[in-house]
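Worked Example 4.2. Consider the chain below.
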Amino acid sequence: MTRTLMARIHVAAPIDETYRQWAQVEAFPRFIDTVTAVRRIDDVRSRWTISVGGFVDDIYVDVVEQVAPDRLVWQSTDGVVHNGRVELAPEGAGTWVTLRMAWDIEGVADGSEMADAHLQRALEGFKSGLEADALATGGDAVEDRSLAS
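Applying the procedure from the previous section yields the following structure tokens:
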């Protein structure tokens, strides 16, 4: 059974920089711990190693929609059914990030509340890394308006 998870957070970075970071799918393992490795094959396709509830697999994932700087959509093309979508919306000097991900892995319980909290932690990791990079390069921090879903 496929379950779609959703989380939302405000980051202190402009939308263009936020989008650039999301478009680097090979960086996903730094903040999404169910994605343990990503190897980019070309501009569209990458090979992901995933680990969910003790289940480990390698899957091909294609970016199926890129509308810079508003959204990025991806989906698996073999094996485990997975898709994800990140939508960005500017607010002042910052950006709202909404992440939706769906997994369908036979025999793996999703633990609904834990799964949503897990996705929120992934966004918090993304936010921390992005804002630390902005401060290190002299970017301006904006007011933190994090919102857990």
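The CA atoms of residues 87 and 136 lie 25 Å apart. The domain at 3-23+65-136 is CATH 3.30.530.20 (Alpha-D-Glucose-1,6-Bisphosphate; Chain A, domain 4). Compare this with Example 4.1 before moving on.
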